[in-house]
Specification:
mainly alpha; binds manganese (II) ion; homodimer; Diphtheria Toxin Repressor, domain 2; DNA-binding
Amino acid sequence: MTLLEDYVELIADLLKEHGEARTTDIARILGVTHPTATKTIARLRREGLAVSRPYRGVFLTEAGIALADRVRRRHRLVVELLIAVGVPQESAEADAEGIEHHVSDVTLSAFERYLKKSAAGGRSLGATGKP
Amino acid sequence: MTLLEDYVELIADLLKEHGEARTTDIARILGVTHPTATKTIARLRREGLAVSRPYRGVFLTEAGIALADRVRRRHRLVVELLIAVGVPQESAEADAEGIEHHVSDVTLSAFERYLKKSAAGGRSLGATGKP
DNA sequence: TTCGAAATATAGCCAAAGCTACATTTTCGT
DNA sequence: ACGAAAATGTAGCTTTGGCTATATTTCGAA
Ligand SMILES: [Mn+2]
Ligand SMILES: [Mn+2]
Ligand SMILES: [Mn+2]
Ligand SMILES: [Mn+2]
């Protein structure tokens, strides 16, 4: 289940890394068929998050860029939190993809505080191996 | 977004507490309209998780009960984990409702280990107030 | 330059989770 | 016992995220 937010995040990445974001690449990377990607891109346009012309790539609007930034930050914090409490990296990456979309701002702030604390003195908890 | 799993969990609770699970109560508690609840209950029947006869209540099959148990346990662990890392209780309860559906078994095991550890010696991290 | 491959577009279908509107059946109070 | 209120059922619509099949356009290699 790839949400609209994930498209925005990926498109921002592709634009930064390759200067372009093509439908085929988006579909392949997200593991969906290209009509599915096309339809979602149409929604991005409708909602003012992206612009695109037929047979040319997709580009983000200011609003799209802002959303991508927020989504990416939240994604990273969720992965880090999961790893910090001892979730194996692979599971953390996989589960974060779903979990991230249900993390409120309040919860995200708590994650940030926790990560700051555990980066400092929290040596006894989390992904430090077997007891 | 109330998933099938949440219906099963709630129906199990209602059956345990009141001996019956009525469509109206299910709908009211989940905050959906009754046709939505009815439709989901039909899916529960189709998938062998519940039985029901017109105008009588809903009951869970063995499979339904088993699912309810797993879902409830996972729900509780997610809430506890969130609280343990410092998420305010209200946000923990609210966000867990969405997060729970994306927590794999591996991640859930990690949550369990973490909670066991932090119950023992992890006094410096989590919901212990301001530093 | 041209033709085949790759990319893109479009049409039409599905399931889950939601809604409103309306019909029917139970239940309950008088 | 009866009628109104409550509960339940049903029809039909929406959105999001999927799919397959088919048409069209663009691109690249010979
Ligand atoms: Mn995601
Ligand atoms: Mn993500
Ligand atoms: Mn839930
Ligand atoms: Mn739940």
